[in-house]
Every structure is written in structure tokens, then in C-alpha cells.
Amino acid sequence: MRLHDFALERFFARWEFTAELLLCASDVEGWPLHNLLELADEDGRRRWHELRLGYTESGGDPALRAEIAALYERVSADDVLVFSGAEEAIFALHNVLLGSGDHAVIVRPAYQSLAEVARAAGAEVSRVELREADGWRLDVSQVRAAIRPNTRLILVNEPHNPTGSLSDRATFDRLVELAAESGARLVVDEVYRFLEFDPADRLPAGADALETGVSIGVMSKSFGLAGLRIGWIATRDRELLARLAAFKDYTTICNAAPSEVLALIALRARDRVLARNRAIVEANMRLLDDFFGRWDGIFEWARPRGGSIGFPRLIGDRPIDSFAEGLVRETGVLILPGTLFADTGNHFRVGYGRTNVPTALERLERYAEKTLR
Ligand SMILES: Cc1ncc(COP(=O)(O)O)c(C=O)c1O
Predict the structure, then answer these.
(1) Which of 22, 161, 222 to mutate to test the pocket of ligand 1 (most atoms within 8 A of CB)?
(2) What is d(CA 358, CA 21) in angstroms, rounded to the nearest whole number?
(3) What is the pTM of this model?
């Protein structure tokens, strides 16, 4: 299997820990360990103190799988397989589901591995374009048009990276119907789920919507615990889950024991964890709305409906790569040029999950005053 470089991750390898302020991170501000431990119930505290650092159950700790299952309507602990981040889940899923002769339909733009691992696994991949003019919303008729007799997989990301778009319920229902009717498996990357600005907009999970549906989840984004590297696949298709478990024997075998306990603690306290994280995102979103209001005509802002990222556009002739390069060199603020998502529309990703977003935005504004007015 030959994988092309992951453009965004290579860019982060260069800048993530050298730029002073990330205005493009997709995760929510990481929880300090001591604050997370304060949320532990008695059983959680005992598990943490008595933790043995041996191998763990390869499918994931049963108590952790039960807490993950509680995020869904129709999923039980045995329908969950825990991975090292959503990234490992994607890698395993595409390798198990796809091979030469298979076809997959995947939205664009997208987190690169969602399409790249499918391609490298041997599948032909058709991309369904999301467009700024449509508010970056999914057009199900385009998905329908892309389906072929050998389409094994339809993959969407709700809420979406990098745009923060979120399908409405009627659109999602049509997608579910299309998957059921075509026999292609619906996979929903839901790593930003629970960060919908209006909770009424939350979509059903892929694993709940269809018996064969797949949900990809992670502790990194909505839960603010990227350093745990705990992700999962939830599906009621036990045969698929067994094949994924067998694949995982060749990647990580099992998860990090401390991470499993900490994820369990966080999920048991999920209301408090999510409330803190949503408050950060919502406060930053108000600042972004003000900012883009002041810069109307210079930046185009399709307001996200969920998640911790958005995809504004720099209007005019200045290429976004050069603007981003100048910004980070002069002010220490990192934005993510859309070219890293193969975007040609001069967009850039902003991330608003971090507590230093207000400072980063002030610096962006000063730089924009200097270079764009
Ligand atoms: C849509 C999407 N899926 C999966 C991932 C991978 O998540 P993790 O890095 O926590 O494994 C990301 C990370 O940015 C993402 O944005």
C-alpha cells in the first residue's frame, strides 16, 4: 500500500509546535489531567490509582465500550471497537471494506485520510463536492449520481471538517434511504458530533440510522482529549466489527491503559466535559462573527453549524498561501491554507476550540489592517 503524504499533517509537523498561536486547530482545548481527574466518580478514581500498565483487552475495556455505546440510541457495548484515535479507525475500516474493484463515494473537501486510505487500499474513489455557494451542504442527488454497482461505501463527515457544515435532517434521511436502497455502506465520521450550535440540529448517528451503518467517533474533538488517542467504530454489523478487530492485531493490538481509564472518566462526566467545551467554542464563535462582520467584502464567511472549525475565504487576488505564510512569520498566528485540502477557492481553515483564539484574532486583525485594506 502506497500512501501519498498527508498534506495537513505534514504542515502541522512543521508548524503545530513552533507557531505561537494556532488559529486552525480542530480539537477543543485539551483538558489538564488534574481537572479531568476531579470529575472522576469513585470507581473511576479507583481504576486510575490501581491501574496496571499491562496489555489491555484488544477490543477496548468493556466499561469504556459501554460508555461509548451510551452515546448512541441502538448500540450496545459489543457493537463498539476502540482504536488509537479516529485515524486508526479510518485506516482499519478502509482496509477491511475496500480493495481493488471496489468503489467509494466520499465528500470533498475532507480530512485527507478519509479518501486517501480508500484510494491506497485499491478502491476507485468518486468525490462529491461541497460548495460554498450552497453553504457547504451535501447534495444527495450528487451522491446518487456517483453510485455504481460496485459502490461499497458512502462516506460523509457531519459536522464537517473543514467547513463546519452540517446536513439538515431531511437531507440526512435521504442519504440513509439512498444507502439502504443501493446496498452501499453508510459511514459517518462523527468526530465533531455534540458540538452542534443548536443541539436540535444533531443528526442521528450512522450506527443508529442503519443496521450496517458505521459511526466513527473520537475523544479528541468535542471532548477536548486529543492526547488520549482514543477513538472508536460503532456499528451493529458484528461481522464487520470482527474483521476490524482482526485487522487491529496488525496495527496497535490494544489501547493505552491510562488513556482508556481517562476516557472512561470523561465519558461518565460527559455533560460537564461537553458543557465546558461548548462554552469555549460558542464564545469564540461570537468573536468570529464580529470579526467577519467587520471584514465583510474582504473575507467571505459561511458560518459553521457545528464543530470547532470553519472555512472562510480571502476575497481578492492575494493567494491564501502567501497570506498565511506572512501571518505566521510576522505574528505567530497559524491558519491553514485551503490548498492543504486541495481547495482552489482561496479558503482557509480557522479553528475556534482553543482558549487563545481571542488573542490570535486580534493579531490576525492587525495583520489584515496592514496588508489587506
Ligand atoms: C474529520 C476527521 N476525522 C478524523 C480525524 C482524526 O482524529 P484523531 O486525530 O483524533 O485520530 C480528524 C482529525 O482532525 C478529523 O478532522
Answers:
(1) 161
(2) 10
(3) 0.98
CA dist 99 → 51, 88, 184 (Å): 40, 18, 14
Domains of the chain: residue spans and CATH: 7-32+272-368 (3.90.1150.10), 52-269 (3.40.640.10)
CB 44 within 8 A of CB 265: yes
Tell me, in angstroms, the distance from the centre of ligand 1 to residue 306's CA.
15
% pLDDT > 90, the chain: 99
Q: 92 in ligand 1 pocket by Cβ < 6 Å?
A: no
- Closest of 62, 122, 60, 109 to residue 89, by C-alpha: 60
In ligand 1, the atom with minimum distance to the C-alpha of 88 is 11
Task: Give me the count of residues in the chain.
Answer: 373
- Does residue 217 line the site of ligand 1, with CB under 6 A? no
pLDDT per residue as tens digits for the range 244-254: 999 999 999 99
Q: Which residues contact 29 (CB under 8 A, 6 or more apart)?
A: 224, 277, 280, 353, 354, 355
